[in-house]
Structure formats: C-alpha cells, structure tokens
C-alpha cells in the first residue's frame, strides 16, 4: 500500500502588520490509500491552513511556506507548476469547505455546478457532464429532478450533500473535508456522514476529516492526528489514541467532553487558552497549560517519539498521562 | 480566489485569526492606525486640511481688516493686466478683468469648503433621522418615508438643486440647502439599512432583556453602531457637493460674480478659453484636485472602517 | 428523590404557551402549546434541532417575543399580564444568556460598561460611582474574568471570555431565573467545559434556576435535572434527565440520541434512522408532526391529535403509538 499523502516538516507563516503568525510549525503526517484520517484541533490550531496548503490555496503574500514537502504519492505538491496543480485540484485531490451556505454559487443550478467540475476535468461535453452530474446527485441522496433547482431552495443538509457531490464528481483519490458537518443538526450530520462513508466505500477514496468533534472522529476514522498550535502532538491508530492516550492535551480534550454513556459529575477542562500564534512559547507549546510540565518542557521543544506500533507523540515524557493504565480501565474504575 | 492585496489579507485573516492585545484599544484607535497606513488617504487628508486652513485664513483676514484687502486684491479691476499669462508676479495669471487669479482662488476656497461641509451636514441630519425612523419601525412608516425618498431619487440631482434654488432667495444657507436636500435619500437609505441590520442583533435584545425602553435602545445601542457607513458617505459626498456648487454657479444660479467662487470663475472665463487657457484650466484644476483629494480621503476612511464592520 | 422535589417550590410554571408568527406563506407555529414547571434552583434542559422552537420558547417566556397565548407564572405572578412598568421590574428576576458571543455584546461598550448596563437601566447605583465599580469587579471575579480586562472591548477578546461577559451581565441584576440559549455551542471544546463548570458552580452558589436550551444531548444530560425534547414547536417528551437516557420512548428522542457520535471507537450505536428532512412549521397538519420522518408511522399517527401522556411517574410522551398511559396500580 502506498502513501496517498505524506506531509514532511511543513512550516507555514503569515507575515501580518502586527507580527508573524506561525500557523503551521514543522507538521508531519501521512496516510495510506483508502483510509480515513481524522485531524482534530481547536480553533486556531492550524488545521485549515494545513488543508489549504495541500491544495496550495493559501494566498502567497502574506502567507509563505517556510519549509517542508507535501508528497501526493511520489510527487511533491509544493514543487508543482501552476498547471500541474490545477490538474490535481478537483480531480485528484478535492476539498469540502466548512460552511455549506457560502460554498455554493447562488446563481447557478446545482446540477450546473457539479457539471462544471466534470466538464473541466473529464473533458466531456455539456450534455454528458449534466448526465454525470445527475448521477452524482442520486448518489448523494438527492433526486435527480431537483438538479435544476438553485442552492437557496435546499436546506443546510442538502446543500452540504451537493457540495460533497461536487467534490466527489471526478472520483478523486483524496478528499479533504474541513468541518463538513459542524454547521448541521445532529441527525442530519449522522445522515451525511453515513452517506460519505458509503461513497468512500464505493469509490475507494481516502479522506482527511478535519473536525473538533472527538465523537465524529471516533466513529469515522482509522487514524487520528491531534493538532495543537500548528504541530501534530499525537498521531496514531484510532483505538490507540482513545484507549492509550499519550499526550496531556489529548487527555484534556477527551475529559472536556461530557459523554452520553458515562455519568460524570464535573468536567475537567484544560486551563487557559491556546497560545497566540505570533508569540509562541519557548519549549513545548502546550507546557503553559500542561499539569505535568517540568523545566525541561518550558525550555526544550520536544521531538516526536513512538509510543506504540502505530502511535507517536510529541512530548518529553510520553505516556506520563496514562502511567500505563488504559483509559477504558480508568473509566471502569470510576473517573471522578 | 482573492485578487487584490486587501482581499488576500482578509482571506488569510479568516484562516488564521488575529492575535489580541488586551490594550484597551478602542475600535476608533485601531481604525485610526489602519487609516494612517494608507498613504493615498493621508495625502488626500492633508490637502483637505490645507484647504481648510486657507478658508479659515481668508475669514480671519476679512474679520481683521473689514474686507479691505479682499476688495483691493480680488474685486478691483486692473485692465492693463487683462488675461495676463502666469508669470512671477502673478503665478496663476490674471483673469478677464486683470484680477490676480491666485488671490481670487485663495479667497474663493471658503465657499467651496464651507458650502460643501454645510450641505453634507444638512443631508446627514435629515437623512439619518428619516432613515432611523424608517428602519426601526418598519411597516407602513417605512413604506411611506421610503417612497418619498424614491420620488426624490427619481429627480435628477441638478434639476432638483436648481428647482430648490430658484424657489428660495439667494443666500449661502439656501445654497447649502439646495445642494444638501438632493443628497438626503442616499443618507436615509444607508442609515435605514444599518439600523435594520443592527436592531436584530443579540446585544440589542440583551438591552431589552435588561429592561431598557425603546428610546434608550435606539439612542444608546443602535445608533452609535450605525455611524460607520454614514461617515464614509459624508466624506465622499462633500466632493459631490463641491461639484454641485461649482455646477450651480457655472449656470449662474449659485454664487454670483464677482465673488470668486471657483465654479463662478470657470463660468465667467468660458468665453476666453481659446485666448487664455489659464483662466479656465486653473480653477478647473483646483476643483478636480479637491474632489480627488476628498475621494482619496473618503476611500481611506471606508477601508479603515470596513474590516471592523465585518468582524 | 421525589420527596426532595416536593420540598422545593415551583419557580416557573409555563402553561399552554403558544407563539405564532404571521408570514407571507401562512401561520408559523413556532411554539405550540408547551407546558412545564421548573422548581427553584433546578435546571430544565430543552433539546431539539433547528426549527423546533426552543429559542423562541425561551424568548417568549421573557416576553422578548410577546406570547400569542398561554401563561407564564413566575413566583406566582403571571408575567404575560404585566404592564410595561411592572415587566421592567420583573426583568430583574429573569435574565438571558445568548448563544453567539460575538453578536451578543455591543461592540462600542467596554466590559465594565456592558456589565453595568442593566444596573444603570434600573438605576440601582449612581453612575460612575465607587459602588458601581465595585459591583462590576465583583461580577468579573464571579465569572472568572481578570480584573485588568475591565476597559477592554469585545473585539479584543476570544469567544470564551466574551461568553463570560454575557454571563456576568445576566447575573448583574441578581436574577432568580436565567434562560441559557445555547450558551456554549459557539465555543471550542475545552472552553465549553470551562463555561459549563462555571454555570454549575454559579447554580450551586447562588441557587439560580436555569432553562438550558441546546441541541447537544450530551451537554444537556450533564447539566439538567429534567429534560424536554421539542420537535416543530411541540413537546414530544419530558422527564427527569436520567430517565430519558435509560428509557427514551419517543422515536425522535431515540433518533436524536443515537445520532450523537460517541467519543469511543469501540462503542457502536444502534442507529435509529430518520427519513427525509424537517417539515415546515407553517400551517402544520393535524396529527403527529413527526410522522413524515418516522419509520414506525401509521395512518393512526397521522390522524390522532396531539396529546401528552404520562407513561411513568413524571415522564410524559406525545406519541400516538408508543405512549401507553401508565396503569393506575403503578405509582
């Protein structure tokens, strides 16, 4: 199995008038073809910047890619020419943006918008593209006869399905989904995620699912990358991450979420806020908020180390959180 | 895809967010900082300030010497120098009566500036009152007021100004009125749109939930948040007003000669366009530069205020 | 458990509350015949998806929208019948926290001005006096805002801090009852937890009664004593919080709960699938409004009028099929 995406040491800065915003800092992750990678992080962690950089959608002033490579199979995306990257966008790697309300062109019918992408990449004529567009609509669960309607005539969930149809129309290898269901009601979210799963099974697409919802990631992803202040602090197979959590930030995130199937009296949030990206601390970025931080953590920036077969963490004291007790055991023993 | 630098910056901001400083910097201070970064806007502002200084200076001089200097330099005819081309003694040359154009223009600045500002003040006060009432109450009041505004908009600006001017006696205030009133509908619409946007915001509901009455809500919470687009419109419309005054004077309805208002100067010079270019070109250039400076200033104000509105 | 409940007095009684809006396409039944009681110091969770009317319900109780009909009885007084002056005084008892931390604060007011606004409306302190300043600082301490932020503006702060300002503002008048309209939905996960803990602490310290409106079932379970599930303006299920998760009866409740993704990859939920999308609350047809989406729906469901039936003590369900009235022998 080859790696459909391999990001190596990506660093992206934005030069603003008030300072340099260090959006992505030495970020590395990779994924195999046909798998789903969940990218979890809070607002300002750099996940959207990372996704947009994969498709080179970051405006180059003020953004600048300081270092790193992004390999799509064996090609470095960052070294592609403009025409090469245009071939990739929409056809090989596709992206879904967060807000379905503003992702669609209000003056074109939905089938036209899907057909546009098909015409561009598959070099079919107008009639054939529309034919394929209607097929895509059916695939995402919208009756083909609604293709001639305009975006404002659809509800939020249906708009997002149209957006997904556009993204999947050319059968891309890799789909980047940036918070695709955050703006949707929970029952609609469940429907849309189910539909995405079916589509992926049918077409064999690899998926990067960017979200802050730990539940969505647990139920849909094979691997998880936890992003904090522009770097990956923990990465691994999904069961490893949830049951043998190794980074204090991930533990904090999991403890912040009230869980349906557990009875927790009080939540244990992480104190403080994510650091200002123009003023990142020396040493570990999470140290100011970490209950286990030592002097070494404040002064030395940690490297990524392996803690399991398919599990790595960026910490000076990997595994300090669990002390070799897995989370499920801890839960069963009563977690108050 | 963003094409202008400004749009690119905004897109970048959306992706990464902005750092915060906790310095107690008001929106006003941030707006000022943003404005001063725009060089064109600062140049425009400096020119406008320069003109303001000239206007004030001419008032002061007249006050001090009772208009004697004015009469001697601007009104007294000096026919031997008729249509003299620009030279060292008379840098802008002389007009058809031999009067020095530069000095006349100096004294004429105040008419353009003060009339421009006065007419915009009239338009703002009337327009914003009508717009706020229409926007806040909606329904039939809104319909009624806006239809009146529509009627006014349907009449060409200059015609309306002429009509008002002809109906009233010719003095400075009436001139400002006739230039200002056709501007009222624009201000009313802008204010109305802002009020309608703001009144549905949660913080207005929070004010209601705190027990505030209607008057307190309109004056304290809604109106202060509506000023930004109005300010922008003001700075842009002063330019339009100056053109309007020049236009009215040109056709003889505004300031009458021999008062050295720039439009009036243009008008009386039009017969000499072929013999002496400086008599028309120089006042005309002054009008153009003033309008340009005001537009640059107004654009700068809008750019400085805009990002705050979006956030 | 029920003895403890009986001892507390009824703080808020809502009876047959309706709020309809006239729209060009017809009569929008935003809130349709809602009845419940909240006891002093307790929390009622109101859950539902967009369009169910929960936000309108909260605002109608505070008369930010005038109710079309029904009663809202607070501490024995029918709020819907108060005059403007009496209502103003009543507002010191009933406050609201909004969802959007960005839109709920006046951009031109500093933190201290925002918090002192309700106090100056009711003329409780002399403007710019030392007592007013002290009160504002007290409020800031209460909600965990650093005192040095007193003169900052909302646009300089993040969502979590802005939400704390909203909470401080709601608390300034020392209200007994607060409607919380999705107060944490717009916040990041770790900030949500901080704010939820704060609200819990405030309830324990000050004995405030909450009506907590949200679409997030896991949050509502954490904080509520009783829960009401709403769909298209109607209550479809109401019961104590633990009961709802042990024994949900209404198909919509079951669907809502099964749709929530659990943060545990080993936990696979039996999904109750819903058909189609939300129907319109404009001129709704008689019969169960959920029938169009319900996989169990029968003709009887579509014709039987809306009725809330007590299926076990304190547990009410409005489902023509699954709500079986409890036997009189049980109790």
Molecular structure report:
The complex is a heterotrimer of chains A (about 325), B (about 300) and C (about 325). Chain A is globular. Chain A is built from 12 helices and 12 strands. Chain A is about 35% helix and about 25% strand. Chain B is mostly helical and about 300 residues long. Chain C is an alpha/beta fold. In chain C, α4 runs parallel beside α6, α5 packs across α6 and α6 runs parallel beside α7. The mean pLDDT of chain C is about 85. Classes of the chains: A alpha/beta (about 325), B mainly alpha (about 300), C alpha/beta (about 325). Chains in contact: A-B, A-C, B-C.
Summarize the structure.
The complex is a heterotrimer of chains A (336), B (311) and C (331). Chain B has 311 residues and is an all-alpha fold.
Secondary structure class of chain B reads mainly alpha
Strand order of the largest sheet of chain C: 6-7-8-3-9-10-12-11
Largest sheet of chain B: none
* H/I helix tally of chain B: 14
Mean pLDDT of chain B: 83
Average pLDDT over all residues of chain C: 87
Give the C-alpha Rg of chain B.
Answer: 23 Å
Helix/strand structural class of chain C: alpha/beta
As residue ranges, the low-confidence spans of chain B are 15-22
- Residues in helix, % of chain C: 25-40%
Query: How many runs of DSSP E, i.e. beta strands of chain C?
Result: 12
User: Termini distance of chain C?
Assistant: 14 Å
Task: Supply the key terms.
heterotrimer, A: 336 residues, alpha/beta, 8-stranded mixed beta sheet, 4-stranded antiparallel beta sheet, 33% helix, globular, disordered C terminus, B: 311 residues, mainly alpha, 14 helices, 74% helix, elongated
Topology:
The complex is a heterotrimer of chains A (336), B (311) and C (331).
Chain A: E1 3-16, E2 19-32, E3 36-40, H1 47-54, E4 63-72, E5 75-76, H2 82-88, E6 93-96, H3 100-103, H4 110-122, H5 126-139, H6 156-168, E7 174-178, H7 186-203, E8 206-211, H8 214-220, E9 223-228, E10 231-237, H9 238-243, H10 248-256, H11 295-299, E11 304-308, E12 311-314, H12 327-332
Parallel strand pairs in A: 3-8, 3-9, 6-7, 7-8
Antiparallel strand pairs in A: 1-2, 1-4, 4-5, 9-10, 10-12, 11-12
Helix pairs in contact in A: 4-5, 4-6, 5-6, 6-7
Chain B: H1 5-16, H2 27-36, H3 39-65, H4 68-75, H5 101-137, H6 139-154, H7 157-167, H8 172-180, H9 184-199, H10 202-209, H11 214-222, H12 227-250, H13 262-269, H14 277-310
Chain C: H1 2-7, E1 10-23, E2 26-39, E3 43-47, H2 54-61, E4 69-74, E5 77-78, H3 84-90, E6 94-97, H4 111-121, H5 130-143, H6 159-171, E7 177-181, H7 189-206, E8 209-214, H8 217-223, E9 226-231, E10 234-240, H9 241-246, H10 251-259, H11 299-303, E11 309-312, E12 315-317
Parallel strand pairs in C: 3-8, 3-9, 6-7, 7-8
Antiparallel strand pairs in C: 1-2, 1-4, 4-5, 9-10, 10-12, 11-12
